[in-house]
TrEMBL record:
This is Thioredoxin-like protein 1. Belongs to the thioredoxin family. Residues 1-110 form the Thioredoxin domain. It comes from Tolypocladium ophioglossoides (strain CBS 100239). The keyword Disulfide bond applies. Keywords: Disulfide bond. CDD domains: TRX_family.
Amino acid sequence: MSKAPVVISSKEQFTGILKASKIVVVDFFANWCGPCKAIAPLYETLAESLSRPNAVTFVKINSDNHQDLAKEYSVSALPTFLLLRDGEVTLKVVGANPSELKEMVQKLAAEVESLGESSGDGGGGGGSWNGAEIPRGYSNITDQVETRGCELLNADEDAGPVKVLFDSSKPSALDKGKAKDDPAKDWVQSGADDQLLLFIPFQSSVKLHTLQLTSLPEDGQDDVSRPEVIYLYINRPQNLDFGEADDTEPTQVVTLTLEDWNADGTTNISLRYVKFQKTTTLIVYVQKGSDGAETVRLDRVRLIGEAGAKREMGKLQKVGEDE
């Protein structure tokens, strides 16, 4: 399927694309504009590599044919490139400057890769499995976890190592064929009681929007439960012990009910986004399991938000600045 930029034929078509696509990149051009023609191949290449259905759409608008749109978006020189999120302009590049255009779309690259080509249905292939829908506008940033620095306290030694929580594959508990063929346990479970303390460091500062947990106790295991009460702490240099965790004010407290878990045993925990804007470490303290069970189990942990990759804004013009 071609991913060439969509040539806008009407304002109604453009409005429809803004409603359907989370991110829209716009090239205002004119047929007589030499610089527009010079940079067009680069724009088409970027569209080919970064377009995603209903997520990222590249369009071209002939300013001569659509002077109403050019006026609405204050286009005073050609070419002009806009980056819109949820219909709002966030970045603007004026002129045929390849480096600035590349910088504008560079910030999309990590998010686009995380979006992938699937909707998280848990099917085969090399994509990352998600147990629930990812909130619109955010990405699975679990690959930002520094797994070598992760630590899990009160883990049952007979279960899997902590790194299995961040495995990108579908849990074996949902893939019965895999569970039979592979005796390795790809989940963690508490040992002495129904508490777990999970320390998660990140490769860089990230913005967290949602914590996605998957817990799949086997049918008939009354002594194993899903988490019910969870305390979250951020930006601690190392893991807390259980006494410290109980005595420390958490960044957020979460209480889960049976209705919070979907058919794949996954819950999306919405975080207080303002508090999780600059997160370098996250501690997930399962303070209590459900139904008074003796132990608690976790199969997967997914972090949803925005990766904290450093980027140079260069001469990009932020919307609201004087032109």
